[in-house]
Write a structure and sequence with these properties.
The chain is an alpha+beta fold and 213 residues long. It has one domain. The protein contains seven helices and five strands, in the order αααβαααβαβββ. Strand 4 (186-195) and strand 5 (203-207) form a beta hairpin. It is elongated.
């Protein structure tokens, strides 16, 4: 736990370097199973155009977009992370859909950082009683300045994990039985760790614990 606290402290310092980002993703207690989580808060606080994410009929979680652009992928992933529909999906189905966006390299996959954004099954069921769902729109995505500075100082550092930090901003709208659509609309922002190896489609590695400007 002390080791993890030290690493998180480094990340909270707004990505002081690539080594800090990779260390956070490879910390010893990274878990591959979902942890109980609370409902996402609604008050949380460029490169090529973002890939379009369309929710399939029936409410299934959108499939990962196929792109080698880390910013475009991060914007698509953020839209999925900020969206949910308790009317059409059970909590396990929603979780299973999110897992498809994760990198298959367990060394770099911090699933718990994503699972923390998902309500636990009991809370999900209560939200379902109110037919609660959330939609999201994504505005802008960029590499944080600290990440760009670290990459410029040591361009070869990224060639081990090929993980990029991308900050995405947007808006989440939450609705439920008896509410007006978008009644819970709030701005959102997140910094995602995205793995984009050469000649491979990007995948999500983690959601960082703080948003880097």
């Amino acid at each position: 736990m002390l080791h993890r606290s030290l690493i998180v402290t480094v990340v909270l310092a707004l990505l002081t370097g690539l080594a800090g980002l990779v260390a956070f993703l490879t910390r010893e207690d990274t878990r591959d199973t979902a942890a109980p989580a609370s409902v996402p808060e609604t008050r949380q606080s460029a490169p090529p155009a973002p890939a379009l994410v369309k929710v399939p009929k029936g409410g299934q979680v959108a499939a990962p977009v196929s792109t080698s652009d880390p910013v475009g992928f991060a914007k698509a992933a953020a839209k999925v992370l900020w969206s949910y529909d308790t009317r059409r999906l059970s909590q396990p189905e929603h979780v299973a859909g999110l897992k498809k966006w994760m990198t298959r390299e367990k060394k770099y996959a911090d699933w718990s950082s994503v699972a923390d954004l998902v309500p636990d099954p009991v809370l999900w069921s209560r939200m379902g009683d109110q037919a609660q769902y959330a939609t999201a729109t994504v505005g802008e995505g960029h590499f944080p300045q600290a990440f760009k500075s670290a990459l410029a100082a040591d361009p070869g550092a990224i060639t081990d994990a090929y993980i990029y930090a991308v900050t995405v901003t947007g808006r989440q709208s939450i609705a439920w039985t008896g509410s007006e659509k978008g009644a819970g609309a709030e701005p959102r922002s997140s910094t995602l760790a995205v793995q984009c190896r050469p000649d491979q489609a990007c995948r999500l590695a983690a959601v960082l614990p703080t948003t880097a400007p």
